[in-house]
Amino acid sequence: MRVSQLLIPTLREDPGEAETVSHRLMLRAGMIRKVAAGIYTYLPLGLRVIRKIERIIREEMDRAGAQELLMPIASPAELWRETGRWDFYGKELLRFQDRHERDFCLGPTHEEVITDLIRREVRSYRQLPLNCYQIQTKFRDEIRPRFGLMRGREFIMKDAYSFDKDEEGARLSYQKMYDAYVRIFTRCGLTFRPVEADTGLIGGTSSHEFMVLAETGEETIVYAEHGTYAANVERAEVLPPKETSTEAPRPLRKLPTPGARTVEEVTAMLKTTPQRLVKTLLYTTPKEPVAVLVRGDRAVNDIKVKTLLGVTDLQLADQETVMTLTGAPIGFAGPIGLKRVRLVADHEVKALRNFVVGGNEADTHYVDANWDRDVTIERWADLRNASAGDPSPRGDGTLRVARGIEVGHVFMLGTKYSKAMRATFLDPEGKECVAVMGCYGIGVGRTAAAAIEQNYDAKGIIWPVPIAPVHIHLLALSQSAQVSDIASSLYTSLIQSGIEVLWDDRDERAGVKFNDADLIGAPYQLIIGDKGLAQGTVEFKLRKDGTVTRLAPDQVLKHAQTLPLDSSRAR
RNA sequence: CGGGGCGUAGCGCAGCCCGGUAGCGCACCGCGUUCGGGACGCGGGUGUCGGAGGUUCAAAUCCUCUCGCCCCGACCA
Question: Residue A279: beta bridge partners?
């Protein structure tokens, strides 16, 4: 491939729209261009990266016994109504009508479509297990698309669906996918971690997310520093405290706290600490309002609250509602004397004595409040986010916190979809059984973006070798005959031995070529200039650390053939 | 969805308050010099000033509507 003939519109300046490293660099390196919010065109170099990742995924999926098929991007509403997701999925589901005014949607995922196929075609236990996958464009009408390929509305995803005759088989299928995912992300050259996860909109019984570790990640994970436990904070369990305070209860007092609304303001004014304050957060649910109590320095975990209450929608109460329920503006809510509201509390605060709570009255807080005497809680439960320093729920040490980018997610679905859509088969006794399912996704574009978040410097991208758009970026520094001749012959011989080369044959100044090569981020650069040739050498340079090896032109091919160009499939 | 902001040349932006000739840098085209880390000189403007309506002798600029995009918020009690 010659740079002079390829569409690689590199940008000298940073585009205004881009925030994150991967978004900025993919735009600048001429790999993607935006078409609409969260919708991108993949230019030749960007597409090559996508294809490399897809190829690794295909090889590993096939090796794990899955088979590729391709489902349509548009699917009819009837299928979604069968599982109830036509209503439940909400606005993320992009809906439209055809000319006959029939309802359709763009597939955000394909459980319904695949389950429909399998229920029609699979009759017998002899046909199971089955694992089908596709690599295809998905559409989710995200509230707020951002960060380029990281959170687009239209994106390429590998999704796989397994069907087994029983739970045990399903667990085996799940484990195979888990193992395949470990191989896939390892081969992509990423630093990642599988973590226990919440099942979200997809539903099901259990799941793991594959997180690429990066500061810019949108997800927070916790993990046992020296142990094996790792989980998304959404999911991470927090153990009840071991010890209860032994302080003697003091009499309850009501104190003025003018203008102090936040935990910081209140604790500063009362000369205490957030650890001795119980904050009361009012939520509205479709059923009734709820007050959730957690320690002043903790964060409520919405998912845990939803699970406890058995509701799917949970919103922080607005100003008006708070006023109605507590009789005070936001900032002074407390459990004492709160009526018409269910009281639930995180089990951590049960251990407190003589704590601070809001007074349900403007500019007022209670101090030295105590359970039972002053407040009765309806339910105690694990309701907060895990944080650094908490003991691991598996007993294997202390938790630490990190940021991650979710590039893959595996779910044990159980029979949620197969039951709703009656995907059944006959077992050896002729009895009708419901297939047990699993589903497994990988964000292809997001994996590419995550690779950049993990591998870049001030000059540009530093692709991991297995997913780099090309192996070698060949820079012919001048238009002189000797440079062109050597470049041309090296290019040909490298290509013929299966090495991917991007040949910068443009009539540009050396500096432009160096900068573009560093920006695009091929792992190796082969630099051919008159200066070097005068001494009979060309330069072989590593993008990662700038290490230069000088070689005679006729040694280049041999040298290149020793490079680890692909972490081979045969491992 | 709520709050804030921005749409002016391919890209990054100024001009808008205070109405009157559409501008700067980069990119681009031509010629010449230069040529191993984003060169220089000379010449060239490539624009529905996001769109529609209104006010006005006159609108990028003021008003109304509309579309698109970006950022923040989903822990604040």
Answer: A294
Start-to-end C-alpha separation, chain A: 30
- Minimum CA–C1' distance nucleotide for A298: B75
The DSSP secondary structure of A446-512, one letter per residue, reads: HHHHHHHHHSEETTEE---GGG-S-SEEEEE----HHHHHHHHHHHHHHHHTT--EEEE--S--HHH
Element (H, E) at A206: strand A206-213
Helix (H) or strand (E) holding A136: strand A130-139
> Which amino acid residue lies closest to nucleotide B72, measuring CA to C1'?
A144
Instruction: Pick out the nucleotide with least CA–C1' distance to A14.
Output: B12
Span A169-202, pLDDT tens digits: 999 999 999 999 999 999 999 999 999 988 766 6
CA distances from A32 to A3, A10, A137, A416 (A): 16, 10, 16, 38
Enumerate the nucleotides of strand B whose atoms come under 7 Å of any protein CB: 1, 11-13, 25-27, 34-39, 68-77
Nucleotide nearest to A510 (CA to C1'): B36
Backbone angles phi and psi of A299, in degrees to 5: -115, 135
**Spacing of A514 CA from B41 C1' in Å:** 25
Asked whether the beta carbons of A399 and A388 are under 8 A apart, the reply is yes
- Tokens standing for A179? 């193992």
DSSP summary character for residue A251: -
Which of these ranges, A6-10, A201-205, A264-268, has the smallest mean pLDDT? A201-205
d(CA A490, CA A474): 9
CA geometry: angle A403, A15, A42, nearest 5 deg: 75
In the structure, how far is the CA atom of residue A37 from the C1' atom of nucleotide B61, in angstroms? 29
Q: Distance between CA atoms of A324 and A333, rounded to whole angstroms?
A: 11
Length A198 CA → B11 C1' (Å): 42
| A339 CA → B18 C1’, Å | 59
Sequence-distant (6+) residues with CB within 8 A of A211 are A192, A193, A194, A195, A217, A219, A221, A232, A404, A405, A406, A407
| Structure letter (DSSP) for residue A396 | S
pTM (two decimals) = 0.92
Q: What ranges in A278-351 are assigned the alpha helix state H?
A: 302-309, 319-326
Q: What are phi and psi of A194, to 5 degrees?
A: -75, 135
ipTM of predicted complex = 0.89
CA gap A267, A507 in Å, rounded: 67
pLDDT tens digits for range A89-100: 888 889 888 889
Rounded, the Å distance between the CA of A12 and C1' of B27 is 9
Distance A479 CA to B47 C1' (A): 37
Structure token digits, residue A21: 């490293």
User: What is the nearest nucleotide to A333, using C1' and CA?
Assistant: B77
DSSP category for residue A340: S
